[in-house]
Please model this.
Amino acid sequence: MKVIAIIQARIESERLPGKVLMNLPFGSGQPLLKWITDSINSSEIVDKCIVATSVNAENEQIEEFCNKNNLQCFKGSEEDVLSRFITITKNEEADVVIRLTGDNPVLDIGILDQVINEHLVSDSDYTASFGLPLGMNFEIISGQAFLSINEEVTQAEKEHVTLYFKNRDEYKKKSVSLRENEELNNLRVTVDYPEDYLVVSHLLSNLKKDELPSLSVVKRIFDETPWVFRANSGKIQKRVLSDFSEEKKEAVQLLKEKGFKHSADKLENA
Model:
């Protein structure tokens, strides 16, 4: 049984360009991406960690980072991220693939190993956890599922790696609930906005000696300084919406949250 973790990463970012290689915390000398690879290397189940980026010239910085840190780097299509995962899965003859992204440095590896085990026991094609702070949940995919893709793939499915499996009933899917309490569930520990960077910098700067990020760390920091997490609490996370109906529902909810009740009612009843 070969289990690999694939981290999709690129330099380009609309809101925070170059974030995957930014020092985190500020001035620490440790790039964001290294927090992820160090955590993955502490797993008792994951056999190999691979960084998957694109052939675009700006991503040569990521390849240099990998070479410097003795990490495997794969370069593929910029627009077709799914093809990177399929190729790596085939080349590595992987039985299980963990999909990670280069903007989520706060991983609880104990929980990851638990989710991998549940994926294996259930013999699922696709397993997703939910209930953790944003940026800490996991997606696990069987290698066989990746290699079974043999039909037309939409552009959205090429860009959002696991959407292909979510859209098709023939795949066996499992959800793993890790919900503890609503206060923690609603926190953002991903790095998408400058405000996210400040929150996660605070969190990581308060790690104890030789301590890796984990849910218990997030809980401790939240208990000590809950006000810090207000800095990014109002940020909107980009989501993959399948049609206008879903997008309209999301827009109505956002308008209501921002106090635009009349506009929300008008859109909802349109």
Remarks:
- Residues 109-122 form the longest helix (14 residues).
- The chain has three domains: 3-181, 184-232, 239-270.
